[in-house]
Design brief:
The protein contains 17 helices and no strands. The protein is mainly α. Helix 4 packs antiparallel against helix 16, helix 9 runs antiparallel to helix 10 and helix 12 packs antiparallel against helix 13. The relative contact order is 0.15.
């Protein structure tokens, strides 16, 4: 039986919804486990900000290349196989990220890690669209809330393990056990098929789709700054011990999770436009607080405000994609997904180059200005 025939006769239900939530948790947990390792990798390999930025670019390239291909593979082999394969790639990369000091090997490992992350992210969103459509209910914010919950558990949990004296390798082995256990729980009810109709693997967005994708890029860039640079900032600029540096991303992920889990009600109460305007403004204020107040406690509060502000902007923008008629939805959604995730995965590399030329604080100020631009654009974007 082909994947298309399977999708035509099988209607996802509660078990598939549960597996989708677990898969989102896997995606968030896997990527967040890397955040506390960044300062260790930087010190172990003797990297400056520019070289670290180049390494992070390898992660971004691997993920962005994998995302559109994952959609093609899922349509042929099903979400279950592709998502499982992506999770295995993550598990293979994490022990190397915790131990290797060779720059070329770090580059190759981050590319592999990024490919795994991109594969999981793309496939789980594809499954979420299918499962949500079958349910007839709005479920996307809740799904993404599990991604953020995984981020909290990943960043705070690994930081706690490191703080207790466990080595980076030991912490990653614990992470791998949790990832594989979650995959084993989810796999039986992950979809054995993918999209019934796949668009082209690559599509160049234009018109309002390009505008929406650009706004997604900025929001994901801010998220990438929290993921890849919050720990470095807290250690180098605020004097926090390396073992606790992952608390910055944990604070960001906590408010992001709360915002997403309550997102449907927030959007109904405020309206989509206000969510973008208020969210962009709050996120910018959080980054400015992080930079301007010289205390690590203020930085943690700033990252928390950043997460709260960013939490519901992207879901609202995805809703806007469904309303536009410039590009078919089957092509527009993958296009803005790739452009948006370029921000979270490739954008931090640019932050590294800016930090090397000036300072990490200056790079954060530039992102805050871009978030203010998102807020201003929200007033004119029809959502």
């Amino acid at each position: 039986m082909t994947a298309l025939n399977t999708s035509a006769t099988f209607v996802p239900g509660r078990l598939e919804q549960m597996s989708t939530r677990i898969a989102f948790f896997i995606a968030g947990f896997g990527i967040a486990a890397w955040a506390p390792l960044v300062p260790y990798a930087k010190d172990r390999a003797g990297l400056d900000e520019a070289t670290l930025g180049l390494l992070l670019l390898c992660l971004g390239v691997g993920s962005i290349l994998a995302m559109p291909m994952a959609g093609v593979l899922a349509s042929r082999f099903g979400c279950r196989r592709v998502l499982s394969g992506g999770t295995v790639l993550i598990c293979l990369a994490l022990p190397l990220l915790a131990t290797v000091s060779s720059v070329p090997l770090l580059m190759a490992t981050l590319f592999l890690f990024g490919a795994g992350l991109g594969t999981v992210d793309s496939t789980v969103n594809l499954q979420a669209v299918i499962v949500e459509r079958a349910s007839g209910k709005t479920m996307m914010s809740g799904f993404h809330g599990l991604f953020s919950l995984g981020g909290i558990v990943g960043a705070a949990g690994v930081s706690a393990l490191l703080g207790l004296g466990l080595s980076p390798l030991g912490a990653m082995l614990v992470v791998i056990v949790i990832l594989l256990a979650a995959l084993a729980k989810a796999a039986p009810h992950l979809l054995a098929y993918g999209s019934e109709r796949s668009g082209p693997a690559f599509a160049v967005p234009h018109g309002v789709v390009l505008l929406i994708g650009s706004l997604c890029f900025v929001v994901f860039l801010a998220e990438g700054a929290a993921l890849d640079w919050s720990a470095v900032f807290l250690v180098s600029e605020r004097g926090l011990e390396t073992a606790y540096a992952g608390l910055g991303y944990a604070a960001f992920a906590l408010t992001m999770t709360v915002g997403r889990l309550t997102g449907d009600g927030i959007v109904r109460r405020l309206g989509a436009t206000r969510v973008i305007v208020f969210g962009g403004t709050l996120a910018a204020a959080g980054l400015l607080l992080t930079v301007l107040v010289p205390a690590w406690e203020a930085a943690l509060l700033g990252y928390a405000l950043l997460g709260a502000g960013c939490s519901n902007i992207v879901p609202v923008l995805y809703t806007a994609v469904g309303k536009q008629r410039v590009m078919p939805e089957s092509i527009a959604v993958p296009a803005i997904t790739t452009l948006g995730y370029a921000g979270i995965l490739a954008g931090p590399a640019v932050i590294g180059f800016i930090a090397h030329g000036s300072s990490l604080s200056f790079a954060f100020v530039l992102i805050a200005l871009l978030l203010l631009a998102v807020a201003i654009t929200g007033k004119v974007l029809k959502v």
